[in-house]
Amino acid sequence: MITTEPVGEWFWEPSPVLDAATSGASRSLALVGEVRDILASLGLVTGGGTGSVVLCDRSAMAHPLFERRGVPVAAMAEQVAAACLLPGRQLTVSLVLPGEWLETGIRRRAEKLFGVRIEVWGEGAVLLVLSTYADIWLTQDLRERPQPEVAAVNAPRLGAALNQISKLTESEIDPGDATRHARPTPDGFVDMLVEGAEYDDSWGTFEVPVRWKRLMRLVPGGSAAEDYESSTEHPVRYARVRLGEQVVGYLWAAIGDEAAGYEPRTAAGDAAFEAGVPWVLSLRSLRLRGFDPLAALSELLGTPDSGGSGSAVESTVYEAASLDALEELSGRY
Predict the structure, then answer these.
(1) Which of 36, 220, 266, 271 has the fewest CB atoms found within 10 Å of its own CB?
(2) Rounded-to-10 torsion of CA 209, 212, 215, 216
(3) DSSP 304-329
(4) Separation CA 228–CA 254 (nearest Å)
(5) pLDDT tens-digit map of 31-64
(6) Are 3 and 333 in contact (CB under 8 A)?
């Protein structure tokens, strides 16, 4: 399963930057680049990814002095150079990295498999963070189903990456606290077939509501009362939503009640949520015009987004036994 919140995180504290004002920014960019290179050398990361640069006064972290997000990796140096790091300030440089893994002999890809973040204080202190957004390292997936074969193929590479980052930074690794999904260790994660999961079905319990809230925060107007019901116990019909050649989500309608909506394909990354906004608004408009959910889905089949986002609903309709089954499909790969 691919998540929007980290399955696990690891922390390092490299040696402080001696002259943060002149070298902190450049070192931060170099270090995140070196971590990315380690992940790429192990086949965990493919493609350039995107980055962000945020400079804050620590007394007013909610109001950045300088902020650039969604920057192609190739353009990161220019953005970092524009951030002036002085005492009392904090510079945060982050990368969102696409990656690949093996599952039942098939190579899968997610546009946000890892996150790398470095924080440098104006006084010189440095914190490096690696996050992962998948359960492929775990002996049990986020729905409590054993997957030792999947972990056996993928977890050793994660362990090797953690070890190499510790050597690179010449600092001890600090596995972060247990998340809602798993417990990190210095070489990966605990064996969940031995320890067990802390929460039943952490995917359905936590991830599904988090995804829905994230999507709705992007929808203008905040008029959720005008939408179809967001959940159902009935089977659903759905169509894939594409952005170019990539499937980014699923537009669905319930068979038997007044529910309809959009499920983001988490492996598509941020684009999955952004592409869903016009279709949530289209469903809202059709409901206000009196369309029942299945009729609304039918009305949108084969249509492009009129707002010009480039996304389009396919013409083919599929059926899932439940919304839960569709949500799982949207989160697997």
Answers:
(1) 220
(2) -100
(3) B-TTS-SEEE-S--EEES-HHHHHHH
(4) 10
(5) 889 999 999 999 999 978 899 989 999 889 889 9
(6) no
CA distances from 49 to 33, 34, 96, 200, 271 (A): 11, 14, 6, 33, 13
- pLDDT for the residue 186: 97
Residue 190 confidence (pLDDT): 95
Question: Which pLDDT does position 27 carry in this prediction?
Answer: 80
Nearest to 270 by CA among 245, 243, 297: 243
Neighbours of 84 (CB within 10 A): 13
Q: Could you count the other beta carbons within 10 Å of the beta carbon of residue 229?
A: 12
* CB contact set of 3 (below 8 Å; sequence gap of 6+): 133, 134, 135, 142, 181, 203, 207, 266, 331
User: What's the pTM?
Assistant: 0.92
At residue 22, the pLDDT reads 58
Q: For residue 209, count other CB atoms closer than 10 A to its CB.
A: 11
Write the Ramachandran bin of 316: left for phi over 0, alpha for psi from -120 to 50, otherwise beta: beta
Q: In which residue ranges of the chain is pLDDT below 50? A: none
Q: What is the residue type of 194?
A: V
> What confidence score (pLDDT) does residue 277 get?
94
Angle at 325 between CA 302 and CA 105, to 5 degrees: 95
Q: Hey, what are 273's tokens?
A: 């949520």
Question: Can you tell me the distance from the alpha carbon of 330 to that of 333, in angstroms, rounded to the nearest whole number?
Answer: 7
Give 206's contacts (C-beta < 8 A, 6+ positions apart).
Answer: 5, 180, 181, 199
